[in-house]
Amino acid sequence: MTRVAIVGAGQAGLSVSHHLTRLGVEHVLLEAATPAHEWADNRWDNFTLVTPNWHCRLPGHVYEGPDPDGFMTRDEVVAWLDDYVRSFDPPVRTHTRVVEARERDGGGFVLDLETPDGPDTLEADDVVVATGGYHRPIEPAFARAIDPSVTQLHSQQYRNADQLPEGGVLVVGTGQSGAQIAEDLHLEGRQVHLALGDAPRVARFHRGRDCMTWLADMGLYDTAVAQYPGGLAAREKTNHYVTGRDGGRDIDLRAFALDGMRLYGKLTDAQGTDLTFAPTLTRSLDAADAVYTSIRRDIDRFIEREGIDAPPEPDYVPPWAPDADPTSLDLAAEGITSVVWAIGYRPDYRWLRVGVFDGTGRPTHTRGVTAVPGLFFVGLPWMHTWGSGRFLGVAADAEHVAQCIVGARRSVPAEA
């Protein structure tokens, strides 16, 4: 029997553990692999953060390196998190997978575990689910209809250009992973074909500072999701594409097109080597640029309102536009030998046999607190604010959940 079981020892689970340790609450972290392994195992070789290093601030562990406005590489993030684990020695059971968790008669939970020594069972008063919101990579059903000679992999599996066979590469999706992987392949000299989705983009720098630093000063990362236009629907938004590579820069797909990258609209179907696209390329480029410009204008208004001395910058001028929206592509004719799917993930909580999920399989909660006594979530994208799924905001959410755990226990009558 344990007081609190935290499922997942990534940055969210570790943050809750740090707070519970400080509060003197007995707990255990159950980790299917090793602490924060996702950063080492599921990021490509040239990965960098897209948020400035100063955003990296977990409970009791703030980035103190030489480049607060820079962007840590994958290996630097892994080292920084390893230092965090060593700093307070959390009670982690590694290589311990939760196969099923269910409510226990009379309160609390029963967790069935798969461990290196075989099956095991753990009982806990409270459970904190800290497994994030990105579990099952998405691939469209028609992926199975693509000619088997074409190599297919998800962005989660991508490591570098040498991993793929010689020839052109089609990247599908322009969220943060898709846009950056397309850039990585392009810089490696591959002929890249990129199918755009609806992701917006953001400028890396504006008027002398990183845009994400401006947005933090403006309070956007601390604003509760319910206060955003559309309310909780903000949780469905795709993050803006930008890169921290080589000190940080914009990702301008129009500039890539000028440099030889081939752009398409949304991929809708495939059969053999013949692919079909919706005529949405122009619209997608224009919509991404509109968001890019809108964010710059919001920063301009903030600068004027606060009386900040920051030199103005010229408006963005698109360097390229498609003559027409392409609607078809023959992989064989274009020498394309591989496809990288970067169209996101679905949540997968099938192991959690507790009725707290909506029709899409996502947990229903208020800042991580569910309607089931003793069940909490942390580390979800947009869990409470835009910063919730990032290093910048997870500490506050973890503290809130830890305080709720302690507060709920204190509120129980002594004789109960």
From TrEMBL:
Please name the InterPro entries in this protein's record. Answer: Auxin_biosynth/cation_transpt (IPR050982), CHP04046_FMN-dependent (IPR024000), FAD/NAD-bd_sf (IPR036188)
Q: What is the name of the protein in this document?
A: FAD-dependent oxidoreductase
Tell me the GO molecular function terms: flavin adenine dinucleotide binding; monooxygenase activity
Q: Which Pfam families match?
A: Pyr_redox_3
Question: What's in the keyword line of the UniProt record?
Answer: Oxidoreductase
Top-rank taxon, per record: Bacteria
